Structure formats: structure tokens, C-alpha cells
Amino acid sequence: MPQRTILLTGASDGIGAAAARQLAERGHRLLLVGRSAEKTATVARELGAEHFVADFARLDDVRALAHDVRRATDRIDVLANNAGAILGRRTLTADGNEATLQVNHLAPFLLTQLLLPTLQAGEGIVVNTASSAARRLARFDIDDLQGARSYSPNRAYGNAKLANILHARGLQSRYGDAGISAVAFDPGNVRTGFGTGSSSLLRVIWRTPLSRLLLVSPEQGGTTLIFFADGTPGTTWQPGTFYTERYPATADQTNPLVHADAAVDALWERSEALVARSA
């Protein structure tokens, strides 16, 4: 496999750091993004990778990140939108958006849009890390994306993960003919510190010995991400598809809205408006 330039968000720990270590062994050029300057720099030094720091709760950080990435490279072969979080009580970011929606969806949506020319100069692969929460927890209301009328940490996270899938479908339908290949996948329930700062009851599983029985390791989750990042669209995996680990999700594994073109289009238009509002 020829060397690829891979931009990987959420790379300071968990699935992202595990995937970065495996991708480095394959000789790829890695551009690692994390929220913690110290943790991201530590992983980058270990791997001889380049790194950037951005807090996805601030869309100006995302704009600065895109600017810095474009200065560092004239092509991106793979953008892995892997950063994400399940949060606690409803809070608004400085941009005026519900924090779970912004960190998990609006920030990667904006980053992808800003980097489209750089992706089109490369192989143009976009990989969104989603979750089965899109089926189990989502109660998607395009008119209440911010959870102002009805909010819970689990519902907000499920809706945001559904948005990751709809985003990949929207990318494929809009830019597939221009050379972009987009996919979303559920890595399985991965044993990381992901839910530590959340008020969600899901954090109980992540914090207890049950995690070793019920959750897969970050290395396994990272290997699944690599299946897409280091694969060949149209051969290894099919663009515009949602996968459960390495297999196309079946009807009982995904939210019915995944296949609703109207939901894809409505979310795209609303997302464009929300990121433009904060510019």
C-alpha cells in the first residue's frame, strides 16, 4: 500500500491513539489532532507524527485547525473524523450550540467542508466513527437538534452519532462524483475513558470490571478504523454505507432514518446554517 497522508482526530487516546500506532507501523504520514496538547504531543512524539491541537467545543479552533492543516500539506488522502464524546447536562458552547451536537457532529462537519479541496487533491476518503447509539438512543427531531425541548445525555449522543452517519451519506451524494468516498462505522463498544466525564449511566460500564467482559479493547477498535482508512473504496468497503464493525449494518442494527434521503438533506442544510451562524 502506498504511503497515505491521514488526518486523524481524537488521536490522543482510545481508538484514535491505537489506530495511529498501527497506521504508523504501515508507514503512513500521520497528522494527529487532539484536545489535550500534552497527550496529543506525547502520542505524536512516540510515532514521529505531526500534531495539532483543537477543542471541538470552539468552532474557531476548527477553522484554525483547517488553516494549519492546509499549510502543512497540499493533499489529504484520508480524513478520519474520530473525535467524539458523551457529555452530561445540557450546555451551550461559545458558538451557541448544544455541546454534544457540536463536538460530535458540527465540528467534524465544518472541518470536512473546509478541507474538501485538500481531500480532492488526495484520495478523498472520509471515515466517520459513529455508534450503535444511533439506533438505540436516538430520538431525532430536526426541529430540536439542540435539545432545547427535550434533552438527555444519552439521547443527545445517539442523535449526534446518527448525524455522523447521515453526514457520511450526504458527503457521498454531494461529492462522490468529485472523488470523495465517505463511510461511517460503528467500532463496537470500546473500552476507553470515553464516558468518564459524563453524567450518563453508560459511564458505569466503562468504569467497572464489567468493561473487560462487555467491551472490546481500543486496539480492536483501532483495527476496525484502519480497515476503512487503509482500505480501497469500492473494493474493501462501499462508499455511502454504514458499517457495524467491518460489515454493512443490517436493518435491525441501524436507525431507519439512515436510509431517509430527506433526513440527510435536512440535516445537511441545518448544519450548514449552524456553522455559518458562528463564523
Automatic annotation (TrEMBL):
Pfam families in the cross-refs: adh_short
Keywords in alphabetical order: Oxidoreductase
Family annotation (SUPFAM superfamilies): NAD(P)-binding Rossmann-fold domains (SSF51735)
Name recorded for this polypeptide: SDR family NAD(P)-dependent oxidoreductase
